[in-house]
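subagent[fold] <- orchestrator: predict structure for attached chain, return tokens only, no commentary.
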Amino acid sequence: NSNLQIIESNAFEESKVKKIFIPSTVTKICELAFYRCTNLAKVEIPSNSNLQIIERFAFYESNIKEIFIPSTVTKICEDAFCDCKNLTKVDIPHNSNLQIIELCAFCESKIKDFFIPSKVSQIGQEIFFDCKLQIIEISEDSKLDSFPFSAFLFCSEFIIMIPSSLKKLIN
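subagent[fold] -> orchestrator:
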């Protein structure tokens, strides 16, 4: 029965927290909230979440293995999940309202598969820098008209499923 709405900047920075449940009432996880929480292995976010924004460096260098991004999230900011060395799974529903994924959002993680939902209209440079990608799927109904090829710097071989609506890959 939490009334918590915002997890403020630096709230858990470098703490020893191992597991956290984000109440459905939370709308924003501010910058550096879980910054360098090297013991943080599990983050639970309910499907009825009201979360809208995950700010800069929110989970930087945490040890989470997977994360569910609720359909209400509209923006994942710069370096939000950067250097999460154990992150292999990012679960984004097909009905997601995600619109923006900023620079280096998931860089240096071990994400294997990633789905870019239809409402994403902006992708930042190097979002998957040095990731272990195998498959990237862009929704067939995608609002993207371009995609920065630099999103994949230092990624090895992977498959990208590009919708017919995508007009150009840019440098």
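orchestrator: received. Logging for downstream: The mean pLDDT is 94. The chain has no helices and 15 strands.
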